[in-house]
Structure prediction request, 358 residues.
Amino acid sequence: MNISKSGYRVFSANSTTACTELAKKITERLGVDLGKSVYQESNRETRVDVKESVRGQDIFIIQTIPRDVNTAIMELLVMAYALKTNCAKNIIGVIPYFPYSKQCKMRKRGSIVCKLLASMLAKAGLTHIITMDLHQKEIQGFFSFPVDNLRASPFLLQYIQEEIPDYRNAIIVAKSPSAAKRAQSYAERLRLGLAVMHGEAQCSESDMADGRHSPPPMSSGRTTSGHPGLELPLMMAKEKPPITVVGDVGGRIAIIVDDIIDDVEDFVAAAEILKERGAYKIYIMATHGLLSAEAPRLIEESAIDEVVVTNTVPHEVQKLQCPKIKTVDVSMILAEAIRRIHNGESMAYLFRNITVDD
Prediction:
């Protein structure tokens, strides 16, 4: 029984024990028991059996995202709907890494999947979300209820100051111009220099023909009296420049900062360039360590000295495969956010010294 004297309940929506570690740390800090009510039938359908009364209660659902992303999402939706059906007062999702956050922009004939997921969560019954370092802050506008987007940077900055010897000789590196704002924030807080890498492969839309025609092609034997269409200036094709590093990294410790590290090929290539430019140690600091596919092996064989991520996403298997991966615990700020929301306290303390660009 998840009996809480504080008047709220905390559940973990994960069906696997490997993914409840963060939830257990949060509940230990809060001094409450962790309830787990998600099961899978033999046919892999998700079933939720709430074993206690939640009527009129504030319910917090902690959902870390394992490799099976879609199952985790379905678990969260079914649990939220079950709690809504059982007359819970407020249902708050604690989702440190929000899935599908990279699919927050329209690309050709694709869709904005992140907005779809936000609508599904609202329909299922969620009334509030606590998350951390959204890929784009504008994602908060997809939701019809409050979103608290916490920051992991204080914990990563503390790690740099306490665990990296001679960090005063470091330089903060943005591996692409799009990551420059985050890197600038780290550099200003640590009073360090800033370097920006430019010229690596960008995730831009291809200008190749994709079957679209305007005006549409005319079939043989068909005539038209319509306007032939305007002759617009031809857009010049992009040409990627050679990779350059804007800033001096020679004889320095290079610290690459980003929000997500998943496919690590770009990070490995960046580390090689920084080594060639004279950096003698390479660190990578990221909030969400997805580390998919062959990421642990590639990191182990690369010039990267250490990859530091938080425990927003389970990655114990990856750590066993690669000793270079280190973890920073962020359960403290998540537990404090839960406590403040339940007690109706201001969240401003958790965002002190945080600017719009952070």
Observations:
- The mean pLDDT is 88.
- The longest strand covers residues 253-261.
- The first helix runs from residue 21 to 30.
